[in-house]
Design brief:
Chain lengths: 297, 94
C-alpha cells in the first residue's frame, strides 16, 4: 500500500497532463456578448426592419439595419459554433487523451503495489479501458470528427462569403428575409447533420460526374489507310482554319455537324472526324466541307 | 494547348492499339498520356500539328520501361492489351 502513496505524485502528474487544454481561455464573455446583441437576435428585429420609419430602427436605414442584424446573427452563430467545437473536443479527443494517460498510470501502479491495491487498480483500469473501447466505437469522436469539422469550417466560409457579398447590395436586391435564409444555411453548415448532407451531396455529384465521364468517353477504332488519309487531310484543314483565326468558319462547320460551336469548336470537329472510321461516315463530313468551303477531302 | 482524351477498346492487340494511337495523332495531335478506364484504354492527345514520327507502343515489365535506342519515351501507362492488364510505353523516334 505504501507503493500507492509513493506513486501518487505520478498519478497527479499524469492526470494533470491529461487536462492539457486545446483551447485557451476566451477573453470575452460569450453570454454577455449575446445579451448585448439581443435586439438584433429577437423576432422584433424583423418587424423593425419592415417599419417605414427609421426611428423604429434606432435611426438606421433599412439597409444599415439589415447589415447590423445579419452581422449580429453571424456573430451569434459563430459564438455557438465555437462552443460546439470545444465541446466536441472535450467529449472526443480530450477524453481519449485523459483515459490513455490515466490507464498508463494505473497499470504502472498495479504492477508495483500490493495485491489488494493492484486488484482495485486493475478493476478501475479495466473500467476506464472498457469505457474508452466503447467510446472508440463511436467513429465520430475518433477518426471522422476532424474531417467533419474541417468540412464544416470550409462550408461555413463558403456561405459566409455569399452573406457578406449580399451586404453590399441594396435591400431590394438583398432583403433581410433572403439574408436570413443564408444565415440558416450558415448555421446548418456548422452542424453534424448539415455537414454529413453536404459530404453526401458532394460524393453524389462526384459519382455522377464520374459516370458522365465514363459514358462520354468517345471510344474509337482504327480506320482503313484510305479513310485515314482523308481524315488527316480534313483535320489539317480545320486546324489551319483555327490557326488563321477563322472562328466563324469553324463555327459554321461545327453547327453543320451538330456539335457545339465556340471555343470548343475545333476539338468538337476533330472528335467528329475521329469518330468517322468508315468511308460512309467520313463521306458525310467530307460533303459538309465541300459544300461550305469547296474543299475536297 | 487543349487536350482531348479518347478511348479505344481494351480487347485489341498491341498493334491494333498502336494503330489507333497513330491515327489519332494524325487527327488531334501528339500523344500525351495513356491509361485505362473500365474496359477501354484511354489516349490523351494534345491538339496541334500531327507529329511526323508517330508513337510506337511496347509492353514492358518492371517499374521503368526499357531504353529504346534512337527513341524518346513519350509516356507510359497501365493499359489493357488483349483484355489483360499491361504496362505500355510509347516511344517516338528522335
Amino acid at each position: 500500500m505504501t507503493y500507492m502513496f509513493k506513486l501518487l505524485p505520478l498519478f497527479l502528474f499524469l492526470i494533470g497532463c491529461a487536462s492539457l487544454k486545446a483551447y485557451p481561455d476566451v477573453s470575452t464573455d460569450s453570454s454577455a456578448e449575446l445579451a448585448a446583441m439581443n435586439k438584433y437576435l429577437e423576432p422584433t428585429a424583423i418587424t423593425r426592419y419592415d417599419s417605414a420609419s427609421d426611428s423604429d430602427r434606432d435611426g438606421l436605414s433599412k439597409e444599415a439595419w439589415r447589415n447590423e442584424v445579419v452581422n449580429a446573427r453571424v456573430r451569434a452563430i459563430d459564438i455557438h459554433f465555437n462552443e460546439f467545437q470545444q465541446q466536441l473536443f472535450r467529449e472526443g479527443i480530450g477524453f481519449g487523451l485523459a483515459t490513455d494517460w490515466v490507464v498508463l498510470g494505473l497499470n504502472a501502479a498495479g504492477t508495483l503495489s500490493g495485491r489488494g491495491a493492484a486488484n482495485a487498480l486493475a478493476a478501475t483500469s479495466a473500467g476506464l479501458v472498457g469505457g474508452k473501447a466503447a467510446f472508440d466505437k463511436n467513429v465520430f469522436f475518433d477518426k471522422t470528427l476532424p474531417t467533419l469539422l474541417a468540412n464544416m469550417v470550409a462550408k461555413r466560409k463558403e456561405v459566409l462569403v455569399t452573406i457578406r457579398q449580399g451586404l453590399g447590395k441594396d435591400v431590394k436586391e438583398y432583403p433581410l428575409m433572403l439574408a436570413l435564409n443564408y444565415l440558416d444555411t450558415y448555421y446548418n453548415a456548422g452542424t453534424i447533420p448539415g455537414t454529413l448532407t453536404d459530404i453526401a451531396e458532394s460524393a453524389g455529384a462526384t459519382a455522377t460526374k464520374a459516370d458522365q465521364d465514363l459514358k462520354s468517353l468517345l471510344v474509337v477504332t482504327s480506320a482503313s489507310p484510305q479513310v485515314q488519309m482523308r481524315r488527316e487531310k480534313a483535320a489539317a484543314f480545320v486546324k489551319q482554319l483555327d490557326q488563321q483565326g477563322q472562328q466563324n468558319k469553324l463555327d459554321l462547320l461545327a453547327k453543320s455537324l451538330n456539335v457545339a460551336p465556340g471555343q470548343d469548336a475545333l476539338v468538337n470537329i476533330l472528335t467528329e472526324i475521329s469518330k468517322a472510321s468508315t468511308t460512309e461516315a467520313f463521306d458525310i463530313i467530307a460533303q459538309k466541307i465541300k459544300i461550305l468551303f469547296n474543299e475536297e477531302m | 494547348m487543349a487536350d482531348k482524351t479518347i478511348g479505344t477498346p481494351g480487347n485489341q492487340s498491341l498493334p491494333q492499339f498502336e494503330t489507333v494511337v497513330q491515327q489519332n495523332e494524325g487527327i488531334f495531335g501528339p500523344l500525351k498520356a495513356l491509361g485505362k478506364q473500365d474496359k477501354n484504354n484511354t489516349i490523351t492527345l494534345e491538339i496541334g500539328s500531327a507529329p511526323d514520327n508517330r508513337a510506337i507502343l511496347a509492353t514492358y515489365d518492371g517499374d521503368a520501361p526499357p531504353v529504346k535506342q534512337g527513341h524518346s519515351v513519350v509516356c507510359k501507362g497501365d493499359c489493357l492489351v488483349d483484355g489483360k492488364a499491361a504496362k505500355v510505353v510509347a516511344y517516338r523516334k528522335l
